[in-house]
């Protein structure tokens, strides 16, 4: 990767997770189970009130596919009477990937970096109850979020996992499809240069050219910016409803042959293209999903 000086970087460690807003958590969970993911139990979101610290339940919940590196979060509405943040509005725009979250070791450093680079970040506290073998515990996350008008590609954030041991429980890390890591997010954009300029400021990293676009390589995972013609060429079953649009995710697996066998057994629609298995959005929460064999190189 091409890095700027340390003083010009926010300390991003890589792709932490992506989040899909879905109309039905039950239907989407069934869909991802057919894709071979082992999902965590339902977990309702909450946040701490500023000043009092009182934990208030939100109206949204998730189920997650936890990978050795990163995870996929399915987010749905479970109580419309409670705070839904931007999930309801997001679903009015489209169902699919909205959240692109990047890990950081030091949220304060990330806040300072964002301010110095023209963003107006806000620190957030997110919590949710998680089942563990020892009983229910509370997972905590410190978020650094920027306004959507500054990063219009979705809900883009940095965060630090304060209780990673509660999320990455060994019992949830082995998937029937052999999934190992969240390797890349593919973002369809109209103006490559403008988008790259924003992410150069955001990541403190220079992109490298790829066919039809640019890639920001992170310590773990990458962000790919592709123009619409490249999306049509590389992912011909993806039709972005708007631009910019988080179009696809690339997930590495231990054995592509075993993953393909599972897809066939579960009667999941897919297309085999070169060294990858492409799942159409209608079969993966309205997000393109690409399975690739794990390698030491970049996707």
Question: Overview of this structure, please?
Answer:
The protein has 299 residues and is an alpha+beta fold. It has two domains: 171 residues, Roll (2,3-Dihydroxybiphenyl 1,2-Dioxygenase, domain 1), CATH 3.10.180; 115 residues, 2,3-Dihydroxybiphenyl 1,2-Dioxygenase, domain 1. The strands form three sheets. The chain has an eight-stranded mixed barrel. An eight-stranded mixed beta sheet has the order 12-13-14-10-15-18-17-16. Strands 1-11 form a two-stranded antiparallel ribbon. A hairpin with a 4-residue loop joins strand 13 and strand 14. The two termini are 13 Å apart.
Main CATH class of the largest domain: Alpha Beta
Under the CATH scheme, the architecture of the largest domain is: Roll
Helix content: 10-25%
CA-based gyration radius: 18 Å
What's the CATH H-level superfamily name of the largest domain?
Answer: 2,3-Dihydroxybiphenyl 1,2-Dioxygenase, domain 1
Question: Numbering strands along the chain, what is their spatial order in the largest sheet?
Answer: 2-5-4-3-7-8-9-6
Count of the domains:
2
What is the SS-derived class?
alpha+beta
The major β-sheet equals: 8 strands, mixed, barrel
Q: What percentage of amino acids are in beta strands?
A: 35-45%
Secondary-structure element pattern, one letter each: EEHEEEHEHEEEHEHEEEEHEHEEE
- Total strands: the figure is 18
**Between the first and last Cα atoms, what is the distance in angstroms?**
13 Å
Low-confidence stretches: 4-8
Query: Which descriptor suits the 3D outline?
Result: globular
Number of helices: 7
InterPro entries: Glyas_Bleomycin-R_OHBP_Dase, Glyoxalase-like_dom, VOC_core
Protein name: VOC family protein
Domain VOC: 14-162
Pfam families: Glyoxalase_3 (PF13468)
């Amino acid at each position: 990767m091409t890095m700027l000086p340390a003083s010009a970087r926010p300390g991003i460690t890589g792709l932490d997770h992506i989040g899909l807003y879905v109309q039905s958590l039950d239907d989407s969970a069934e869909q991802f189970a057919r894709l071979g993911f082992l999902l965590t139990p339902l977990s309702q979101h909450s946040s701490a009130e500023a000043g009092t610290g009182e934990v208030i339940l939100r109206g949204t919940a998730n189920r997650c596919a936890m990978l050795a590196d990163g995870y996929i979060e399915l987010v749905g509405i479970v109580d419309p009477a409670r705070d839904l943040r931007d999930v309801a509005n997001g679903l009015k725009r489209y169902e699919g990937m909205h959240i692109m979250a990047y890990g950081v070791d030091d949220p304060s450093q990330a806040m300072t970096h964002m301010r110095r680079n023209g963003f107006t970040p806000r620190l957030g506290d997110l919590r949710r109850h998680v089942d563990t073998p020892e009983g229910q515990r509370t997972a905590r996350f410190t978020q650094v979020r920027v306004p959507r008008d500054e990063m219009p590609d979705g809900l883009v954030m940095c965060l630090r996992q304060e209780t990673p041991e509660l999320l990455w429980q060994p019992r949830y890390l082995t998937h029937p499809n052999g999934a190992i890591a969240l390797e890349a997010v593919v973002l369809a954009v109209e103006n490559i240069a403008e988008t790259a300029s924003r992410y150069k400021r955001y990541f403190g990293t220079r992109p490298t050219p790829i066919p039809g676009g640019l890639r920001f390589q992170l310590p773990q995972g990458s962000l790919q910016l592709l123009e619409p013609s490249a999306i049509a060429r590389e992912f011909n079953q993806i039709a972005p409803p708007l631009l910019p649009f988080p179009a696809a995710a690339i997930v590495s697996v231990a054995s592509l042959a075993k993953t393909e066998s599972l897809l066939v057994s579960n009667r999941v629609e897919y297309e085999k293209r070169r060294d990858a298995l492409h799942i159409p959005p209608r079969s993966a929460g309205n997000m393109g999903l690409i399975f690739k064999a794990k390698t030491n190189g970049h996707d």
